[in-house]
Amino acid sequence: EIVLTQSPGTLSLSPGERATLSCRASQSVSSSYLAWYQQKPGQAPRLLIYGASSRATGIPDRFSGSGSGTDFTLTISRLEPEDFAVYYCQQYGSSSSWTFGQGTKVEIK
Amino acid sequence: EVQLVQSGAEVKKPGESLKISCKGSGYSFTSYWIGWVRQMPGKGLEWMGIIYPGDSDTRYSPSFQGQVTISADKSISTAYLQWSSLKASDTAMYYCARPFSSAAPFDYWGQGTLVTVSS
Lengths: 109, 119
Description:
heterodimer; A: mainly beta; six-stranded mixed beta sheet; B: mainly beta; seven-stranded mixed beta sheet; four-stranded antiparallel beta sheet; globular
C-alpha cells in the first residue's frame, strides 16, 4: 500500500503570501493519480486538484498542482482569507486504493 | 444535481451494532463507486473502503478489513457502512464520497455522519 507523507505539518503564513505544500509517496504514483483536497472546520473535504495538476470545477487559478512519480506539490499563489484550512493529498486508482496523506494545516500568521 | 445525503448522528454504547447510510441522487447510482472515509476527532482523513453498487464489488483498506461491512441497496440508491460491535475508538465523523470512476478522486461528498460510542 502506498503511504503519502505531507510536509510541513503546519504552515504559518499571512494573506497575500505564497503557500507551497509537499506530498511524498512511498512508491511511484501511477499516471499521476494524485489529488489535493481542502477541508475547513465542520465541512466535508472539497476536491481542488486531480491528475496531479488539473483543477477541479470552480477552483480558482491561484491553486496549482505539480509533480510526478513520488513528489508532488500544491501551490497557492496568493493566500486569500478563505484559503486558511487543512489540505490533504490523496492517491487513487493504485490497487483500488484511495490513500490520504496526514494533512497540512495552513494557518494565519 | 448530484447529492449524497447521509443519515443523522448516532450515539451508541460499546458492543452495540450500527448501520449508517448514504443516499445518492441526481445521477445513475449503479454506475459510480461510493467510498467511505473516517475522520477521528481532530485527525486526518482515512479511506475505509468502496463499493460499486452495480454489482456490489467491494474493496476494503487493509486497516478496516474485517472491522466494518460496506453494502448497497441499488433499489433505493443507498450505500451502507455497518459495525457489528462498536468500540469507543469508532467515535468519528464518517463521510461517504463518490469518485468519477475506479481511478478517480472523490468529487462529491456527503455531509458526514457523526458516530459517538460511549458507555
